[in-house]
Specification:
It is built from eight helices and eleven strands. Strands 3-2-1-4-5-6-10 form a seven-stranded parallel beta sheet, with helices on both faces. A two-stranded parallel sheet has the order 7-9. Helix 1 packs across helix 5 and helix 2 packs parallel to helix 3. The chain is globular, with a radius of gyration of 19 Å.
Length: 301
């Protein structure tokens, strides 16, 4: 891979992927929304160039770069948190935007389209999540992600592109959203506040953003056309253990309150990725343990 395009390059995975690609001497073209404060998260480097297009403008993008690109990584998505996850019209627009991204990939000569899916596509599953695990999403967000993955695979193949869809579990790292469990807990502990949680009995699978970025690069280079991959660490443990490890890393004398928040009606209680196929097809395995990832976030802040 010599050149790649990324949308949604301002979050935890996107910013990490830009750095991963540059570290491997790969030129990066980023599509981002003009005026967004989060654009400052994007690495400033001679190999990184920006084009200002929002999601609803992708359909109009033309290739005026005099270059062809190898892979298109699509992370951008509207309505990822709160009530917006069940805004059906908004989520339906995301499907169209993702199809628009495939069209743009074709215009820029890309060989492959790689889309970011979600564990939300599965709904509530008590077993280890595999690419062929039956998917029964329970939110508009999950339904739209599932639809986008299937429709873009078919559309990419119609246009002569290879396709991979990557269902991401729980990623943490620099530039993660402030509302995520990891970032919000770090913020509160650093402010000497007492964060509150459910009992933390959920079995969870966390993966550091740098490891996720390396997985995406390797899938872009070596992923098998048409495959869906599940991306996580491959290991799960009780959420309460992760919470205590955050406390001990940030402020060993800090306080946390487990059991103060009730579980939601559709609370997912088990998340664990089967990463066998990613490893077999690309050679990828996670390298950063949870504590080391936390230390990287604290240093970054």
């Amino acid at each position: 891979m010599k050149r790649a395009i990324i949308t949604g390059a301002t979050g935890a995975v996107g910013t990490a992927l830009v750095k991963e690609l540059v570290a491997n001497n790969i030129e990066v073209l980023v599509f981002c929304r003009e005026g967004s404060k989060r654009n400052q998260n994007i690495l400033k480097h001679p190999l990184v160039n920006l084009k200002y297009y929002s999601l609803d403008q992708l359909f109009a993008v033309v290739n005026d770069t005099d270059q062809t690109y190898d892979a298109f990584f699509h992370f951008a998505w509207e309505g990822t948190t709160g009530a917006a996850r069940d805004d059906m019209y908004l989520q339906n627009r995301n499907v169209r935007y993702t199809l628009d991204a495939v069209e743009v990939a074709k215009r820029f000569g890309c060989r492959k389209f790689i889309g970011a899916g979600s564990q939300a596509e599965y709904g509530r599953v008590e077993g280890i999540l595999k690419p062929n695990t039956p998917a029964f999403p329970e939110t508009g967000y999950g339904i739209a992600k599932l639809c986008a993955g299937q429709m873009t695979r078919e559309y990419a193949h119609q246009l002569g592109l290879e396709h991979n869809w990557v269902r991401i579990l729980s990623i943490y790292g620099p530039n993660d959203g402030a509302q995520s469990m990891v970032m919000s807990t770090i913020n509160k502990l650093q402010k000497k506040e007492i964060p509150q949680f459910t009992k933390g009995e959920q079995m969870w699978d966390y993966l550091y953003s740098g490891d996720a970025a390396r997985a995406f690069r390797l899938i872009g280079e070596n992923g098998i056309d048409g495959k869906t991959y599940v991306l996580g660490s491959g290991q799960a443990r009780p959420l309460a253990e992760f919470i205590r490890e955050i406390k001990d890393t940030v402020d060993s004398k800090g306080e946390i309150e487990l059991g103060r928040i009730p579980y939601g009606e559709k609370q997912v209680m088990f998340l664990q990725a089967d990463i066998t196929e990613i490893h077999e097809d690309t050679g990828w395995s996670p390298e950063i343990d949870f504590k080391s990832g936390l230390e990287s976030i604290i240093k970054w802040r």
